[in-house]
Amino acid sequence: MRNYFAEFFGTFWLVFGGCGSALYAAGIPGVGIGYLGVALAFGLTVLTMAYAVGHISGGHFNPAVSVGLFVSGRFSGKELLPYIVSQILGAVGAALMLYLILMGSEICCIDSSAPGAFAANGYDNLSPQGFSMVSAFITEFLLTCFFIIIILGATDKYANGKFAGIAIGFALTLIHLISIPITNTSVNPARSISQAIFAGGEYISQLWLFCTAPILGAILGGIIYKFLLEKKK
Questions:
Q1: With a threshold of 0.85, does the pTM exceed it?
Q2: Which residues of 80-118 are buried (b: 16+ CB within 10 A; e: fewer)?
Q3: 172 falls in which pLDDT band (50, 70, 90)?
Q4: Contact at 8 Å (CB) between 42 and 20?
Q5: Mean pLDDT score, 164-173
Q6: Per-residue pLDDT at 115
Q7: Left if phi > 0, otherwise alpha if psi is -120 to 50, otherwise beta: which for 58?
Q8: Separation CA 199–CA 221 (nearest Å)
Q9: What band does 128 get if pLDDT is binned at 50, 70 and 90?
Q10: Is the predicted pLDDT of residue 31 greater than 80, yes or no?
């Protein structure tokens, strides 16, 4: 059970830290952290939890990562569903805490028609910069694919594992720098599910993309690393 709790708390921290920074610290006039700060926040959540609990569970914190590792042969299929459930529960728990905090502010309402509402992911009218569904799908697919390749490479037995958390954290930062304007950045179905639940409205109907594209990208990333990049004995 320790590994499931590790995934729960790791995903909780990712959503609470990353989405929390987007909700409360990004848009303050003059002193807000902006896109760069939010990107760094997401990267730091993964980096810190990778070293805190990564030795317990492997530090997935993302259903797409678990799927990618399974496809590459690095993760057991019997653990896949329990990991994903733990990740989603952790993400929803963090979103609930963010929601309760928001309800205690002067800006307690959530406008489900506005781009980036409750740090949720969207396309078309819900994209931060109005990007289309096709643009969003390509972005989430490619970025998740490369994220998996980076994770597999950084944690390879031939790599220097001491720095894996740093490489993965910076990779997630870069991913956010690229895609926050496009989709508000998912590459993580658990993160998307948790925010869409509270954002409501059309965010729920658009959720399919932020589950499908990252999973498909993760599958491709796992295949590419296993068959084209992994050093064989």
A1: yes
A2: eeebbebbbbbbbbbbbebbeebeeeeeeebebeebbbb
A3: very high
A4: no
A5: 97
A6: 96
A7: left
A8: 30
A9: very high
A10: yes
In whole angstroms, how far apart are CA 185 and each of 38, 91, 211, 222? 10, 15, 12, 20
Of 226, 182, 232, which Cα lies nearest the Cα of 75?
Answer: 226
Structural contact between residues 69 and 207, judged by C-beta atoms closer than 8 angstroms? no
Give me the mean pLDDT over the 133-138 stretch.
Answer: 98
Taking the C-alpha atoms of residue 134 and residue 123, their distance in angstroms, rounded to an integer, is 9
pLDDT digits (tens, 9 = 90+) for 58-85: 999 999 999 999 999 999 999 999 999 9
Residue 218 structure tokens? 């993760």
Question: Tokens 């998912």 — which residue?
Answer: 186
Name 157's Cβ contacts closer than 8 Å, sequence gap at least 6.
none
Alpha-carbon gap, residue 186 to 177, rounded angstroms: 12
Q: Is residue 41 within 8 Å of residue 33, measured between CB atoms?
A: yes
Nearest 10 degrees: Cα torsion 28, 30, 35, 40: -90
**Could you tell me the two tokens for 71?**
């496809």
Of 121, 131, 137, 124, the closest CA to residue 195 belongs to 121
The residue behind tokens 């830290």 is 17
Structure tokens at 199: 């954002």
Q: Tell me the C-alpha distance between 97 and 136, whole Å.
A: 28
**Segments in the chain forming alpha helices (H):** 2-24, 34-57, 63-71, 80-103, 133-154, 164-183, 189-199, 202-205, 207-224
